[in-house]
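Run log, item B.
One chain of 390 residues. Sequence copied directly from the ordering sheet:
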Amino acid sequence: MTNPEEEVISIMRKAGIDLAATLPCDRIKNLLPLVSENFPEVKLTREENGVGICAGAYLAGAKPMMLIQSTGLGNMINALESLNVICKIPLPVLTSWRGVYKEAIEAQVPLGAHLPGILEGAGIAYTIIDSPEKIGLLENVIRDAYENLRPHIALVSPKAWEVSTCCAWEARKSPELPKKERICKFRLTQKVLEPRMIRNDAISAVAAELDGEITVTNLGVPCKELYAARDRDLNFYMFGSMGLASSIGLGLALRTDRKVVVFDGDGSLLMNPNALLEVGKEAPKNLVIVSLDNGAYGSTGSQETCALRYIDLEILANACGIQNTHKVNTEEELVYVYKDSLNARQTSFIHVILKPGNTNAPNIPMSPEEVTKRFLEALKENAGKAENKV
């Protein structure tokens, strides 16, 4: 008899899944080693980041899937709604459904018990898999997500694994953890730079240099400013899911050889610093993050962020393992460092010191779905051109 864990792997392979984004749960500890063996994997530090990474990977032509504990859905709802739903980006998610069956941890119960109602209220498709005989429903979950271009959640009860004799976790666990060691390399600008330009100056300076690079831009005014400075089919404008710009860029960079440039903001990065952890760990050589730091939430009234007085984003990037970092405060320096970063063949982080201030850039006259469709078509067209040159 096939174990349910092995059946899941078979279903994923048959469906063409080629990237798994995972966070562990005790109930699927025997499934996750099999996932690691059979698929390229991004091990997440936060579930919400997986939404962004998988979205970016899908845009670059991959067929990703997430495997997480159901509690992670709590921090994913907005991202699923304001990225996957409005842009029509598919994402199947296998969740280990806690709090509903033989649950010994009381804290798991409130969210777990209400998850079906929460997902139904949010309009997010879900399927309950509460026995080993229903594991096959996962195939429908994956198919529906990709055919209907939407997220679909599989709520898999611990009961589904009870008959399993799979011992993958026990067979692969080490008697002790590997030794914790790391060589830290820092490349920091120690002096405090005086801001001399506003965000639009920085965006316009980089936009003028864009050639075949793919761009991802943080939501709000930054998107409008890039659109006004230089609209391109290869620009992916964000309309929601704040904090996931660099995660989306990471997903793209992992699945394409093209240069990927992310225009992120200090408010966005501080809302989700875990994004830089995953960037530093995966370290794609074709990713450049342009951190637009004006010390303010520019799109909501320029309220102060912690980056104004309390934290240095270049040091944060270094702490997350990104070694090629720069700090600039003029357009000339930014353009020079940007060109250098494109040729660096390592993940690069450009910390741009800015004054607060927005331009009166108009709204982008396209819907999120239209932007996504145009972007996907541009990537396919450019991929075809690259293949013809080979």
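Observations after the first pass:
- Residues 4-172 form a domain with the Rossmann fold fold (CATH 3.40.50.970).
- The chain has two domains: 4-172, 199-384.
Flagged for discussion on Thursday.
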